[in-house]
Amino acid sequence: MIRVVIIEDEQVAFQLLKRIIENNFPELEVVGNADSCNTGIELIKSVRPDIVFLDIQMQDGSGFTLLEAFDNIDFGIIFVTSFDKYAINAIKFSALDYILKPVKPDDLKDAIKRYKKSNNIADNAARHSALMENIKTPKKHPQKIVLPTNEEYFIVSPDDIIRCQSDNYYTNIFLTNGKTVLVSKTLKEYETLLSDSGFLRTHNSHLINIKYIRTFVRLDGGYIVMTDNKIIPVSRRKKGIVIDLINNM
Question: Rounded distance, CA 43 to CA 33, Å?
Answer without folding.
Answer: 7
